[in-house]
Amino acid sequence: MNRMRLVVVGAAGRMGRMLVRVLADHPAARLCGALEQPGSPALGQDAGLLAETGPSGILVGDDLEAALAGADGILDFTAPAATLRFARLAAERGLVHVVGTTGLQPADLEALRGCADRARIVQSGNMSLGVNLLASLVRRAARALGPEWDVEVLEMHHRAKVDAPSGTALLLGAAAAEGRDVDLAKSSVRSRDGHTGARREGDIGFATLRGGSVVGDHSVILAGLGERIELWHRADDRAIFARGAVQAAVWAADRPAGFYDMADVLGLGET
After folding, report:
1. Catalytic residue among 161, 186, 195, 218
2. DSSP-assigned letter for residue 261
3. Which of these is catalytic: 26, 157, 218, 233?
4. Taking phi first (over 0 means left), then psi (-120 to 50 degrees means alpha), and beta for anything else, what does residue 181 get?
5. Fewer CB within 10 Å, N side or C side of the chain?
């Protein structure tokens, strides 16, 4: 069986290097291109050596058009503006585009959906199996318990993370909102400071912590009168996200054009 040919964009970053490592010995996919921004000190370096997996024969470049010429898909954990550019190119070529980029706004997601009539786009705030199972549990719990139970999403990441709340926290908040059949944008509380007044019924709160080298800790607290449920996920290794992203690409390879998420990839469906 021919292994799927994938381009890693942002190949010199933490997630980019991890994706290269996962692809080095993956049975169904292989690295065919590694991209970085013009001026990056990684340009011209062997992507495998950069990722500490040994020589790959793939040099990090900045010519996306050339890299995509022989590719089946793109693995993308970059920034929103770059992701939209990659999505348009994926649509032009009918490629698979796996999007793990965080910080995407509603308008960005709408633009991605607009590219999915020709590309196979898999987008998620988190690519790990555990987190997506957690989202499924949160959706089910929120539906069963109703708005009388308060929902709070707490997340902590390393000190260098630039967006907040994290994409995973928003994914979990969205799962709670879906379970209640409400609009997260209208129910979300992102910060509290000073005399805020009593908590409104139905609010979905978010709290953000940053520090050290934490890969990603997330918890969803459902608090009722006299009892509380806490659902946790802790990520110890970024490899879980890279493995999930490659799994998503391979899954999407023989799917029709469309906009998918990790629940589709993992066959979780609605609960």
Report:
1. 161
2. -
3. 157
4. left
5. N
Q: Is the pLDDT of residue 155 over 80?
A: yes
User: Catalytic site residue 161?
Assistant: yes
CA dihedral 6, 11, 15, 17 (to 10 degrees): 90
Whether cis (ω within 30° of 0) applies to the bond prior to 165 is yes
User: Mean per-residue pLDDT for 92-104?
Assistant: 94
Which pLDDT tens digit goes with each residue over 205-240? 999 999 999 999 999 999 999 999 999 999 998 899
User: In this structure, how many other beta carbons lie within 10 angstroms of the beta carbon of residue 131?
Assistant: 24
* Residue 10 to residues 35, 82, 208, 233, Cα–Cα distance (Å): 6, 10, 26, 26
pLDDT at 271 over 50: no
Structural tokens at position 87: 């999505």
Q: Tokens 């879980």 label which residue?
A: 240
Q: Count of residues for the chain?
A: 271
Average pLDDT over residues 114-139: 94
